[in-house]
Amino acid sequence: MGHRQSTIELKNYCSDYKLINPSCYTYSGSCSTPFPAEIGPFDSGIAVFEKTAGTSCGSVGVVTYDLLNKSTQENPGKLAIMFSNPFDFNHDSNLFAVGVFDMSTKCDYGLYNKMYYEAQGGYVRGAARDGGLTYTSERVTITATMTDTYEPDLRVQVHQN
């Protein structure tokens, strides 16, 4: 039960939007394999987050990407992915959330705390054991699934509306 790692695969199925300026905040653990600086249309990226060795904490945090319209160069929002792979499944379970926020939103403890604890608004949250999530904003729809294992795979797809 000591090793914990979360793999996040992000696929961009938007023809008009690139995902740029990735940022991550880890509440516990660290990012061992970061996302690429840009995920273009019909491209994908993978990141790996691991628990800190010798601790009784899992791999928990939030990742953001700016949405960039290729033709207008406008940023209509910030894509956010929250993940929680706890150390002890007796007390917690794998949780995840996806959404789109205002461009002024920072990728920090505040965003993590909001997506983990607060009432949903601008995002959807669920437990891995309960199935997939879908969040629809004005410009994109995000779908996500997370395996309910000690080393979960979180798969996120972004589709243009």
Automatic annotation (TrEMBL):
Keywords: Membrane, Nematocyst, Target cell membrane, Target membrane. It is found in: Nematocyst; Target cell membrane. One of its GO terms (cellular component) is pore complex. It comes from the Eukaryota. The keyword Membrane applies. Pfam families: Anemone_cytotox. The keyword Repressor does not apply. SUPFAM superfamilies: Cytolysin/lectin (SSF63724). One of its GO terms (biological process) is pore complex assembly. Transmembrane segments: none annotated. GO terms for molecular function: channel activity. InterPro entries: Actinoporin_PFT (IPR050677), Anemon_actinoporin-like (IPR009104), Cytolysin/lectin (IPR015926). PANTHER family: ACTINOPORIN-LIKE PROTEIN (PTHR40388:SF2), BRYOPORIN (PTHR40388). This is Uncharacterized protein. It comes from Anabas testudineus (Climbing perch).
